[in-house]
Amino acid sequence: LSRVLRRRQRLSHLSSLEDALGLLKNSKKIIVLSGAGISTSCGIPDFRSSTGLYAQLQEEGKYDLDDPQQMFDIHYFRERPEVFYSFAKQIYPSNFVPSPCHRWIKLLEDKGKLLRNYTQNIDTLESLAGVEKVLQCHGSFKTASCLRCKTRVPGQNIETFIMSQQIPYCPKCREEADRRQQMKKELKTGKGKGKALWDDDEEEEENEWGGGEPGIMKPNITFFGQALDSEFDECLFKDREEVDLLVIIGTSLKVAPVSEVLTHIPHSVPQIYINLTPVHHVKPDICLLGDADSIVTYLSSKLGWTIPAPAAIPLP
Ligand code: APR
């Protein structure tokens, strides 16, 4: 508590827009921690606002969910993959255009001020805006993996399944299932290579394989109940030694471990929170409440920075 109090005394003078401008001007190693609030102006709902995805799922009631968050729960997905695949096309990144916030993060990078953008979003709009030092803490649709044999494929391989609301099964598992089927058939008839190829290891593997359905492919977005990729800890461990300003934009900071970034960086590092609604469970040094796009645009104008225009909208 005394450490926190000491920090509060040191930073208690920080409170306003002026301080935020001074910090942005002088900082060289800025971590931007972003959430769904920086993509709402692109037409992608956030999660917990009254108009967010969870409210929509609750209202619609058309999916068999006890709680809207179940849509992104790994245990529920294993039991009922068809529920997620009947919905996934609604959140699949398509022709969205990066917001002024995404482009502001790119501006920080172009000015050599961005240490890293830790984004919770899976829409990949940071990359579309040209941001290179972005870590997708909750993954993205860029790749997909088999829950059974862990085979990883490019996300496009399951795009048609997502768009047609079908469950994608693992091609590798299917191939293996067919191979084993064929060998067992040959074993029975005593014909073909089956006998020679089916040695004790195969017998053992058969028990592990357990036959049955091939594995289900799941996009590599982090579901509740799944650990984040180890890259998150590795980056944070490194960045915490260099960061000189933390800017948190468009997130309710409700989901760990990303929400705990604030406690993992030294208390001497100032924190600016830019969000439509206030946050109560943490105490950033400076809170700028309002529309994030408008706030970053205002800050940039006061600093004489120009937020890059949106690149040409990608052709469908
Ligand atoms: N400007 C500023 N803030 C905004 C705007 C806007 N235009 N639109 C929404 N917000 C704010 C909301 O007030 C809210 O506080 O953005 C925040 C978004 O919070 P959440 O909906 O909880 O989204 P996020 O914090 O990104 O969720 C984190 O939860 O369900 C999981 O994996 C999911 O990555 C997600 C994680």
Automatic annotation (TrEMBL):
Q: Which cofactor does it need?
A: Zn(2+)
Keyword NAD belongs to the record: yes
Instruction: List the signal peptide residues.
Output: none
Domain named Deacetylase sirtuin-type is located at: 10-306
Major subcellular location class? mitochondrion
A GO MF annotation of the entry reads:
histone H4K16 deacetylase activity, NAD-dependent
Provide GO CC annotations from the record: mitochondrion; nucleus
Q: Where is this region: Disordered?
A: 185-212
Name the positions where Zn(2+) binds: C146, C149, C170, C173
- Start-end of Acidic residues biased regions: 199-208
Keywords (alphabetical) are: Metal-binding, Mitochondrion, NAD, Transferase, Transit peptide, Zinc
Tell me where it resides: Mitochondrion
Q: Does the keyword Aminoacyl-tRNA synthetase apply?
A: no
Active-site feature positions:
H138
Concerning its family, UniProt says: Belongs to the sirtuin family. Class I subfamily.
Name it: NAD-dependent histone deacetylase SIR2
Q: Which organism is it from?
A: Kwoniella mangroviensis CBS 10435
